[in-house]
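#lab-general

N.A. 3:47 PM
ok so I finally got the sequence cleaned up, no stray characters, all 341 residues accounted for. can someone with queue access submit it? mine expired

B.Y. 3:52 PM
send it over

N.A. 3:53 PM
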Amino acid sequence: MRALRAAIWRLRALFYRERLERELAEELEAHVHMEAEANLRAGMTAEEARRAALLHAGGIELAKEQYRDRRGVPFLETTAKDFRYAVRMLARNPAFAAVAILSLALGVGANTAIFSLTDAVLLRMLPVDKPEELELIGVMDGPAPMFSFSYPIFRELRRRDQAMSEIFARASVPASLIVARQTGRGVAEMVSGNYFRALGVQPAVGRLFTDDDDRVPLAAPVAVVSYRFWREQLGADPEAAGKQIHIDSFPFTVVGVAPAAFFGVEVGTVPDIWVPMMMQQRVFGSAPAFDNSNWGWLSVLGRRRPGMSEAQAQAGLNVAFQQVAREDRGKFWNHPSEIAI
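B.Y. 4:20 PM
back already:
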């Protein structure tokens, strides 16, 4: 009965999303307000009290995401979103649509069809250099791959793997973006220092990140903005490099603008601003995640070396992954798993 009630509660979230979102926001804000009041009584200023309350809460947006995962049916919600996007992309490209429909007609299984379509939409059609070499990396931890990695796993895979020319990572989060004292909502994406290099993206203005921007936590509060954000929020200023944008209350200095065609690598999420992954604590407003092996918050991708097949790349990744798993003695997973791409 308990399992049945839990299932009904999760399904209910699909039909009352707006109301539940409103209730969630109100509840979290109430908790933050009470914590801030206590901090004020302890002698903090109003700004310090609210900041400390947000840190204690572990980050409002992160808390919301975790609650949404527990209350709803993430697989159904994600599948529906991907399906809607795929339909739009197929309508734009009739030739690709014909090939996809023919493949389905020839009896491609449901799981394979979903994987192939997602693979094509997410990676093969990206406006980047040689998108056919890109792979989304997951872990087979049951009947379906899991695509969330902790930072220590990402770091070790990148250090040890010889199959990929680049392994890079990203994580998106809704954020409050402040430009010239004007506040708006947007999407901030934390990326590894090799993110733009791995994708072969060139800047429209200024420069993009390098590994030097992503070596030390909190050391490089720099940002790259999307072309749309540059045009709409920065007035297409050719001297935009050097301007400041605040993510919540923290200033970031713009160093460059992404090209007009580039929209990131996640279906349905177009970042407004990219920042180095080492600035995670400022974006999430929570404790550092770089030594936490149990927090899977990163999407990890790789670029195969020229001439290397998917099977070869997967085998090479598995060698590196199993080395990490053995040395860590089950800290990351309690049973053997394999890399999936």
